[in-house]
Design brief:
Helix content is about 30%, strand content about 25%. By secondary structure, the protein is of the alpha/beta class. The chain has a domain at about 15-145: Rossmann fold, CATH 3.40.50. The strands form four sheets. It has a six-stranded parallel beta sheet, with helices on both faces. A hairpin with a 5-residue loop joins β3 (about 60) and β4. α2 runs parallel beside α3 and α3 (about 100-110) runs parallel beside α4. The radius of gyration is 21 Å and the shape is elongated. It starts with 14 loop residues before the first strand and ends with a helix.
Length: about 210
């Protein structure tokens, strides 16, 4: 369970919290919950998201359950450091879409006394660690992994399976493009997709080669 740090005014350092998991696991919902609590406490809070994330709204962070909070879309991680340096709490959604600079930005903010709350996918659609998320998880004081429910087995889901044929690393989408799967379901689905694209010689070509060889 996540326990918020006790404020020690003699120690002028903040900390980093990472909320990670698959699509539809409630990452953004948990991010909004923590930031709302800070706002209720009259702390100065700023929320940032990558400018490419326009699924629900251009200027808000919105969860799949339609909860929302005002945010600032930014083109790069460096902008977060500039705009968030005077805040008590900085929230960052979809952190996997930022470049590796987001790691040093989060650490610099924490070292200057800011509480940094980060949410993002820990794995991409192939099941590999996603962008800067592993480094953020390694340097964070708190890591919370949330889970979705597998649409095929009903078990806990940790993987985000892409339904489309695109092989691009970044494809912004919702439930029409992705579904949360358990390890077993993801492995079977991924193996099935690999078999579909596996090159296979036609029977006609094989027969013709045999005839040519006598």
């Amino acid at each position: 369970m996540f326990l918020e740090n006790t404020v020690n005014h003699q120690e002028q350092f903040g900390w980093i919290e990472v909320i990670c998991g698959s699509m539809f696991s409630g990452k953004t919902e948990e991010l909004i919950r923590r930031l709302r609590r800070a706002q209720f406490a009259k702390q100065k809070v700023e929320i940032f998201k990558p400018i490419i994330d326009t699924r629900y709204d251009n200027d808000k962070v919105v969860s799949h359950d339609a909860n929302e909070i005002r945010s600032t879309p930014v083109p790069s991680a460096a902008t977060i450091k500039t705009l968030g340096s005077t805040c008590d709490v900085v929230g960052i959604d979809e952190a996997q879409f930022f470049d590796d600079e987001i790691v040093s930005v989060c650490n610099d903010l924490a070292n200057s006394g800011v509480r940094v709350v980060v949410a993002g996918l820990d794995m991409d659609f192939k099941g590999n660690p996603f962008g800067p998320m592993p480094a953020l998880m390694a340097t964070a004081e708190y890591v919370t992994k949330v889970h979705a429910v597998c649409t095929r087995t009903g078990n806990l889901a940790s993987y985000s399976f892409r339904k489309s044929n695109s092989d691009d690393l970044v494809v912004i989408g919702q439930n029409e493009a992705y579904e949360p799967l358990s390890r077993a379901a993801f492995y079977k689905a991924f193996l099935k997709e690999k078999i579909k694209v596996m090159p296979v010689k036609s029977e006609e070509v094989t027969i013709n080669k045999k005839n040519a060889n006598g």
